[in-house]
Amino acid sequence: xxxxxxxxxxxxxxxxxxxxxxxxxxxxxxxxxxxxxxxxxxxxxxxxxxxxxxxxxxxxxxxxxxxxxxxxxxxxxxxxxxxxxxxxxxxxxxxxxxxxxxxxxxxxxxxxxxxxxxxxxxxxxxxxxxxxxxxxxxxxxxxxxxxxxxxxxxxxxxxxxxxxxxxxxxxxxxxxxxxxxxxxxxxxxxxxxxxxxxxxxxxxxxxxxxxxxxxxxxxxxxxxxxxxxxxxxxxxxxxxxxxxxxxxxxxxxxxxxxxxxxxxxxxxxxxxxxxxxxxxxxxxxxxxxxxxxxxxxxxxxxxxxxxxxxx
Length: 311
Fold this sequence. Notes:
Blueprint: H1 2-10, H2 25-40, H3 42-64, H4 68-82, H5 85-100, H6 104-134, H7 136-151, H8 158-165, H9 169-180, H10 182-193, H11 197-205, H12 210-243, H13 252-261, H14 265-288, H15 297-306
Helix pairs in contact: 3-6, 3-9, 4-5, 4-14, 5-14, 6-7, 6-9, 6-10, 6-12, 6-13, 7-10, 8-9, 9-12, 10-12, 12-14, 13-14
């Protein structure tokens, strides 16, 4: 068996398995394209790098400004207002657990990356969804791109980000942006396309312009679907930020990565628990934006007080 495996080398040619690791014609074409971009568009990448880095740094400064206790109380207050008292208690205890584990600064860094990437994804994705819903050729152009973005393995996004922006927080945010943007585009398009035609006709009958029709008729009707896309974008951004620690994204992903590299189960478990706590808080708070008025704190308080009123 060993003689058969070594035979190709004796004939002066490498074994066939060695060719698997070499780029073919498509890979060489991609290498040439990346080299051309780095040669002719480096100034553009530098501007994007500086802008994204400034936004991420500003976001982290805002998040780290309050003390940990103040931040936890703010989040618990938001949870009480938008979700429930039980969730507010969970958020308060969960954030204090993160603080007790010594992972507060990595959690803030991760949250800053998620907020920055989600903001950029929504800034680009919402207009694209609106445009694709109103112009069918745009949707026909966007749909295969979104299919490609959603079926591509997450680790593949790291390669072009590192090639164009080196390593650090900026390529992590760019990769997260591309990975997390498709849901908000698709669900914005879906929500606007599902607006009943009679509502559209009523808006036109009352003399609405196309812009008024979009903001006063279509968007209020499509808001639950659009907010579902926002929620999915935030969740995908958090999952990708953890993966992006492999290219220097930092934060809680760095903690999990160190636990894997050092085979430290305890460290990896603590990092994973912190990620779960942050994910649950972001998920429930973003889902609360889809709640109707009767589920807010004011409506719950009115219902509770009505139980004590005398007939």
